[in-house]
């Protein structure tokens, strides 16, 4: 039977809002209130501005929405499910180069240019460099006594290497990225941070146009032949303007370091809090691949994903009306017992493929293979270097990154010497 919101007995005030508080129970689980809303794969949801849209918690329903071109990613069509400090009543269109807020055909054009540069083969070719970066960071961790020398520097070094961003410049962009993802920050501060990141990457683009090096930004920015003179430099051979290159580079830089950094930090926390799973990984480093997939499923650090219905669409027997914003809860979908038996248990031997932590459909994360390589290299290396690694505080005292759009830990106090 098709669900018709027009006949629903719930008033707008009675509709649930999106639960976001993850820290009151187990720090690795979705909010208890979100779990309670997962009895139906699709339900009505009240948004921060009063809009009535939908919440999708079922795995099959989430895949259906994310793969369907009748659901748009354009920011100006979306409503925010949670309040954000100073957020505008209506979202502006995506800035130039921000492929996350675009639909086909614009999104398709950008995606085709980038997809060939993020192949599984190319990402695996970086394994040796990632191993060296990880070893260097573990050396620094041993000297400094904190995972801060490991969880953030590894992905920062890797994304800098891939894009051609000088690691020495990290002081110019790391703080900006923190503000961009901080939901508690004022909207003006987030906009200013984003503009600052674009200015920085824009400077890099101009430098690489003049003197290309062996990296992704140079590849995209390298000039083609000038008009009528094959020897004269013309626009970027990729066809991208400098503004587009700055936007794409800024997006890749921010997303490439922040998501993986928080996955590593929170993943280490989850393993240290579960000695059975940690012992299994220590005993068999070949479990690093399955463990990474399971941690991605279990932790779901990037959540939620938003879409807007361009026309009436039926999903799991429920009618989603044109214009409704759909909030796809990755946390809930990755804990759907119809897809993952006993979903609230961390099991690094689980076949967790099919999780939605990298999204699904045309907007599935370009850098997913890079993130997998980083995790499968870094996690076993950490526990091999520090076989006695343990939490230095009770789990309940670990400070969580609660008001960011990328969930994680603020810091993770650890010890590895004799107790």
Instruction: State Rg.
Output: 22 Å
Poorly predicted runs are 1-7, 226-232
Given helix and strand content, the structural type is alpha+beta
Distance between the termini: 61 Å
The main pleated sheet reads as:
5 strands, mixed
In words, what does this structure look like?
By secondary structure, the chain is of the alpha+beta class. The chain is built from 14 helices and 11 strands.
Keywords:
alpha+beta; five-stranded mixed β-sheet; two-stranded antiparallel ribbon; globular; disordered N terminus
Give the structure's gist in a few sentences.
This protein is of the alpha+beta class.
What is the fold's blueprint, element by element?
Elements: H1 32-36, E1 42-46, E2 52-56, H2 59-67, E3 71-72, H3 106-115, H4 120-125, H5 127-144, H6 153-163, H7 170-180, H8 187-210, H9 216-221, E4 223-226, E5 229-236, H10 242-272, H11 275-283, H12 288-299, E6 305-309, E7 313-315, E8 318-320, E9 325-328, H13 330-333, H14 368-385, E10 390-391, E11 414-415
Parallel strand pairs: 2-9
Antiparallel strand pairs: 1-2, 3-6, 4-5, 6-9, 7-8, 10-11
Helix pairs in contact: 5-6, 5-14, 6-10, 7-8, 8-10, 10-12, 10-14, 12-14
